[in-house]
Amino acid sequence: MKSIIEQCLHQAVEQLKQDELLADSASPRIHIENTKDKAHGDLASNLAMMLTKAVGQPPRDVAQMIIDRLPVRAEIAKVEIAGPGFLNFFMADEAKFDIVTEVLTQKEAFGRCQVGQGRRVLVEFVSANPTGPLHVGHGRGAAYGASVASLLATAGFKVQKEYYVNDAGRQMDILAASTWVRYLQRCGESIAFPANGYQGDYIYDIADALVESHGEAFRHSAETVLASLPADEPDGGDKETYIDALIERAKTLLENGYEAVLKAALDAILQDIQEDLAEFGVTFDEWFSERSLMDSGLVDAAIEKLQQAGKIYEQNGALWFRSSDYGDEKDRVVVRDNGLKTYFASDIAYHFNKLEREFDVLIDVWGADHHGYVPRVKAAMAALETDPDALQVLLVQFASLWRGGEKLAMSTRSGQFVTLRQLRHDVGTDAARFFYVQRKSEQHMDFDLDLAKSQSNENPIYYIQYAHARICQVLNQAADKGWALDIEAGLANMDQLEADAEKDLAILLAKYPETIARAASAYEPHQIAYYLKDLAQGLHTYYNACQFVVDDASLRNARLTLVSAVRQVLQNGLAILGVAAPERM
Q1: Which element (helix H / strand E) includes 366?
Q2: What angle (nearest 5°) sits at the alpha carbon of residue 219, between those of residues 213 and 221?
Q3: Tell me, what CATH number does 54's domain have?
Q4: For position 413, what pLDDT does the model report?
Q5: Of the candidates 264, 276, 292, 294, which has an alpha carbon nearest to the alpha carbon of residue 175?
Q6: Could you tell me the strand order of the sheet in which 332-335 lies?
Q7: Taking the complete model, does pTM exceed 0.85, yes or no?
Q8: Secondary structure, 3-state, 470-498
Q9: pLDDT tens digits, residue range 98-124?
Q10: When you count CB atoms within 10 A of the terminal residue's CB, does the N or C end of the chain come out lower?
Q11: What share of the chain is helix, strand, coil (3-state, %, to 5)?
């Protein structure tokens, strides 16, 4: 309906130019929106107010000029001038149901658009350090990133999904040391676990696998391991100093075996992450290794390029990037005084690599606590003479879990956290995926576990899925009576649909394509969640107001055809969010 009105308004503007009431150079942006009150029609435009200066007449007079020049269309019942000069369009009832034909013809393709115009987009999300299982905080980023990628693909972008594996750096050494100590304990050595190690039970599982595959090949006595090491916490020492000393001891004693321990831990955790995400309905086109940046020399090449551009300087033995020249609050270290490269150095090389792969848009989904990192990454992109505006960083706030009105406590390093796998087993993948994306990503969310499992109208995903199942149930009831749906007959008898609930559903169906376009442009899948709740409400209202399986074949087919279109759109929208559309509840 919007496209019809837009065409008519364009024709009216051209007629104003031909009548020399508007300059030929005028090119107004035609904006059409849904009205909030049915008394004001179905759609409205502020075109008259936008043209009042160019025409030189009051907006209500300009509105009448536009009305006088609108082409006659059967779809438009009437046009009224409201307020300061709004044009309110009342659509003919029969035109409202044209959308049903469109939905059932296009099926899964209904709602797809070309907002993206084929531009290549790389969506990088989750990218959790492979030092332990995914927790519920990672789950929100996973659900959001996957939904954004699906939404952009629906809107005409060419999308690639990527997970950046942080498999280099100090956290990997801490993981190796943690695994080795648990391995030594399994071998019978009496050695305390480091205060700064990864304490989750999953480390025991990796250690057990090491014992099974390598026996005691990596065993050294506790006395040898601990000889001359500094004190740890809480024994009067510093946990950071102790873990670093323990790492060096492991590298010295194990020699080549150190890499075997590290690889065993990394591979086990990464495989667990991949399986966990796959079961959550989240897959990636590429798992990009940070180590590959180091091994290929890309990090050194990026630093050298910045040095040649005069963007790197040395101070106190370290190399600093002049990020303050580009709006960052201070300069940043890329190589420490001990020669080790920082995470920031890897990130510079990684984003440069992304652009070298000829992506038009780079989308990074980060935790909200990384918001201060955005300026320095954009600064590096500018210094490397690439377009910093190509990077869009989408921030995701943490999710708090609640059960029985009480907030669940979580601590990642201590191992006391709720994993994504536990959440999925508790509430189900569908509920988890939907609850994670039902509001803006940058808003903090309270995840009510009891609500997510409840079979009530207060549970939004149950409410939506039940709408789909209810339609399937009605169609099965008709079939059981020998009344198979005749869509052709239903489309031919749309004029039988006179109830307000039926017209409201048709209007809601027509809003789906514009919802897709708007949500994709804003990277906001929660708009789809809101829309689906509205559509489900419209269906339930219709179900309670009208009987679908009636003796009158023409009316029955019309009503069943309408709800079949609703079913299709529910399926399309839920698919974007990674949620199933069940036929039974």
Answers
A1: strand 361-367
A2: 160
A3: 3.30.1360.70
A4: 47
A5: 264
A6: 312-315, 318-321, 332-335
A7: yes
A8: HHHHHHHHHHHCCCCCCHHHHHHCHHHCC
A9: 999 999 999 999 999 999 999 999 999
A10: C
A11: 55, 15, 30
